[in-house]
Design a protein that fits this description.
Elements lengths: L2 H8 L2 H19 L6 H8 L4 H7 L2 H23 L6 H21 L1 H12 L3 H22 L1
Helix pairs in contact: 2-3, 2-5, 2-7, 4-5, 5-6, 5-8, 6-7, 7-8
């Protein structure tokens, strides 16, 4: 076993998984799902290619998990903000807080934002599935708050 291999086996699984997630989302944002290979992701994360399958079950699993994590965080924030408003100024404040949170998230996690916007426009079935399963929940939270 080379020193490089020993360094990778000594790395905790969580940090390897996070490195793969970050590398994968960056490459998906830059090259699209089809333009990104498992080898590209592993090389960018500086890990063995087999770890993509180990942690995510493959490229599609990594893609889905990254987008789901982003979406679930947005839905959770929406649920925290959109408690019943006690007055019109409270309603306005909650809407402003939500808009600020969404903008911050889109700027901080720009890879996910680029992937979602592009791949929904392209009709990527994996992205559409993630959108239906997660992002729509956030829209329901907003709808219920406004009603």
């Amino acid at each position: 076993m080379s020193k490089k291999d020993a360094d990778h086996t000594a790395r905790p699984a969580v940090s390897t998984k996070e490195a793969l997630m970050e590398a994968g989302l960056k490459l998906f944002a830059e090259n699209g799902f089809d333009g990104t290979s498992v080898q590209d992701i592993a090389k960018s994360a500086d890990v063995n290619v087999s770890l993509v399958s180990y942690h995510f079950g493959g490229k599609e699993g990594l893609y889905q998990e990254g987008l789901k994590k982003f979406a679930e965080n947005r839905v959770q924030i929406s649920r925290l903000i959109f408690t019943p408003a006690t007055s019109y100024p409270d309603f306005e404040n909650k809407m402003r807080m939500w808009a600020e949170e969404i903008l911050k998230a889109h700027m901080k996690e720009d890879y996910c934002t680029r992937i979602i916007h592009r791949d929904i426009m392209l009709g990527n079935p994996v992205t559409l599935k993630v959108f239906d399963e997660t992002f729509l929940q956030g829209f329901y939270v907003i709808r219920d708050f406004i009603q």
